[in-house]
Amino acid sequence: MNRLWVRLTLAFLSVTLVTVMFVALLGGLSAGDQFNRYIVERNEALGTFVPKATTNAQQAAPPVEQNPQTNPNAPNGQRPNYGNQGNRPGGVNRQPPGIPPRTPEQNFLDRLYVTLIIAALAAGGIGTVLGIYISRNIAAPLAGLSNAAHDFAARKWERRVHVQGANEIADVARAFNSMADALQHAEILRRNLMADIAHELRTPLTVMQGNLRALLDGVYPLEMREVATLYDETRLLSRLVADLRELALAEGGQLPLNLQTVELRSALNRSIEQFALAAEAQDTQIEINPTPLPSVQADPDRLVQVMHNLLANALRYTAGGRIRISGEQVANVVRIQVSDTGKGISKEDLPHLFDRFYQGDNSRAGSNTGLGLAIAKAWVEAMGGTIGVESNAGEGSTFWFTLKPVRG
């Protein structure tokens, strides 16, 4: 009784029965009244007006036919016409005594009432069948959606529903399929992330375990050089854990931000100073556009971190080249660019460049953990901007991101 299609069927049936009963009652009353009015008007037209004092029995009683055998005025040769009156001598009287015979008009009304009852029953039956059909068609897509939701909850990620039914139900089905696609994609990313983290952690741990075992077995002498190697691996592990934590906070929308007005040129110069020695060591020039730059709304420390990741990425692939930093206000945002003259990026790698642990072209990430660009993207989006890259293989690359300017 609590199923939707049953309730819809009962609703259709109730409405149909009430409508049919109302129509039948109204039709019967109206038909009888109109028919009586028709009889009166016909009698008045024919000049056979019946006085109001005449009783119904007198109106209904047929004229008495005299027996020609006892009527001396009957024409010769005329025989009694008993017809179907049931009073033929020796026959059976079909009309009970004391009840006047029914007129043809009354028989017509009876047949009309029977016809209305049959029509009402037929309409009720048709309404019931249509109600069951329509309600099942409405409830069937919802039942399929419920089954798909249960399957999806059971981690059957490939489960989808067929888009059918009314527009509203079809919209719900499309929304469910979109949600299922997003959740399946998120599950794939989660699995890949777990596998990538395990891989990244395994490498330094394996190096540390191997070196420590060699020291314990006396293969390597206990020297400061070996201790320094182990220390570098612990720093890599610590950096990986810190990057993963920041990335998780950024994607969860829980990054602690200190948004304030930042002088953009000062922040860019601060980033360049950190890479001056590294650029000089590999004979790479870093220059900044001398045009005035507007102030932006950003977290100064996170802005420097974003620039750090982009500059480290550019230096990695631009030995002996040039890196140019520029900024300009475009429409309602400030666009900052880091262009290099390196070997560029293939078109196959561009869509995945900001993914975690992406290893295309030795993973042009800005840190040894493979998370530099992913973290830069998270920080920029947390500050209300966007980030992207433009590159062609062999022609260098241009990484850019946008921030909101400070309204004067």
Distance between the termini: 66 Å
How big a fraction of the residues is strand?
5-15%
Question: What's the CATH topology name of one domain?
Answer: Heat Shock Protein 90
Q: What would you call the structural class?
A: alpha+beta
- Oligomeric description of these chains: single chain
Number of helices: 9
Order of helices and strands: HHHHHEHHEEHEEHEE
Mean pLDDT: 75
CATH architectural label of one domain? 2-Layer Sandwich
Largest sheet: 7 strands, mixed
Kindly describe this structure:
- The chain is of the alpha+beta class.
- Among the domains are: 167-251, Signal transduction histidine kinase, dimerisation/phosphotransfer (DHp) domain (Helix Hairpins), CATH 1.10.287.130; 260-405, Heat Shock Protein 90 (2-Layer Sandwich), CATH 3.30.565.
- Helices cover 54% and strands 10% of the residues.
- Strands 1, 2, 3, 4, 5, 6 and 7 form a seven-stranded mixed beta sheet that branches.
- A hairpin with a 5-residue loop joins β6 (387-391) and β7 (397-405).
- α1 packs antiparallel against α3 (104-153) and α8 runs antiparallel to α9.
SSE blueprint:
Elements: H1 4-46, H2 56-60, H3 104-153, H4 167-217, H5 224-251, E1 260-262, H6 264-274, H7 276-281, E2 285-288, E3 296-298, H8 300-316, E4 322-330, E5 333-340, H9 372-382, E6 387-391, E7 397-405
Parallel strand pairs: 2-4
Antiparallel strand pairs: 1-3, 3-7, 4-5, 5-7, 6-7
Helix pairs in contact: 1-3, 3-4, 4-5, 5-9, 6-8, 8-9
In brief, what are we looking at here?
The protein is an alpha+beta fold and 408 residues long. It has helices at 4-46, 56-60, 104-153, 167-217, 224-251, 264-274, 276-281, 300-316, 372-382; strands at residues 260-262, 285-288, 296-298, 322-330, 333-340, 387-391, 397-405. Among the domains are: 167-251, Signal transduction histidine kinase, dimerisation/phosphotransfer (DHp) domain (Helix Hairpins, Orthogonal Bundle); 260-405, Heat Shock Protein 90 (2-Layer Sandwich), CATH 3.30.565.
